[in-house]
């Protein structure tokens, strides 16, 4: 299993970013995918989750209404569209999947929201 995030960067408050996570090494279309984030000094937290078909999604309260998770099973890629970004969204963002009770993580991509 190999997960590679991209799309992070520095953005001003109120701005937008789209993160991507390219997956390989497993049957991507059969597995739910999640985005997590970890801010300095804080625990890693779930941001959003999408079921294997993409038909069902769920969000943390902090992401609801601002972030959208989606996936393209033909491209083995999951996305996180982040709008109306706030300084408190600053964190390293990770994608994750799980197989046979084993969690697989990408290396993360840094998102910094600052003026």
Written description of the protein model:
- The chain is an all-beta fold and 115 residues long.
- It contains no helices and eleven strands.
- The protein has strands spanning 2-6, 9-11, 17-24, 33-38, 45-50, 57-59, 67-72, 77-82, 91-99, 102-105, 109-113.
- Strands 2, 4, 5, 6, 9, 10 and 11 form a seven-stranded mixed beta sheet that branches.
- The protein starts with a strand and ends with a strand.
- 29% of the residues are buried.
Labels describing this entry:
115 residues; mainly beta; seven-stranded mixed beta sheet; four-stranded antiparallel beta sheet; 11 strands; 0% helix; 53% strand; globular
Q: Gist?
A:
With 115 residues, the protein is mostly beta strands. Helix content is 0%, strand content 53%.
Order of helices and strands: EEEEEEEEEEE
Q: What is Rg?
A: 13 Å
Question: How many H/I helices?
Answer: 0
Average pLDDT score: 97
How much of the polypeptide forms β-strand, as a percent range? over 45%
Class of secondary structure makeup: mainly beta
Helical fraction: under 10%
Indicate the overall shape. Answer: globular
Indicate the low-confidence ranges by residue numbers.
none
Q: How many strands, what sense, and barrel or not for the largest sheet?
A: 7 strands, mixed
The number of distinct β-strands equals 11
Cα(first) to Cα(last) distance is 37 Å
